[in-house]
Amino acid sequence: MAPSGNYSGQFWQFIPQPSSGTYKICSMFLGQNRVLDVYGNDKTKPHLATEGNYSGQLWTLEGWGDSTWRLSNAYSGDLRLDTYSDTHEPFMGDGDHSGQHWTITAIRKI
Length: 110
Known about the structure:
By secondary structure, the protein is mainly beta. It is globular, with a radius of gyration of 13 Å. It has no helices and 8 strands. It has a single domain, classed as Trefoil (Acidic Fibroblast Growth Factor, subunit A), CATH 2.80.10. The strands form 4 sheets. It has a two-stranded antiparallel sheet. The chain has a two-stranded antiparallel sheet with strand order 3-4. It has a two-stranded antiparallel sheet with strand order 5-6. It has strands spanning 12-16, 23-27, 34-39, 42-50, 59-63, 69-73, 80-83, 90-93.
């Protein structure tokens, strides 16, 4: 991950999925054709993939109770979107770690 800044690749759209309470997540830069997913052979590695009918692309947001959110997907089970503290590289991890606490701020409609 890069340092935060005013870049279209760092602005994310959460697209509600009909009747499932889940979202597909895409960046403003790449648009709705590329969404957040995990690899089929390694559900701990998130990446942007071509949008399709895959459970790794269906994300649930749950509040931690401290104004931050945890993100999980239907494919990775109890694992949540996390970042390594030294490299900030994203991965799917268990437990309750600071890299799993995401702040979501609306900037505008995409």
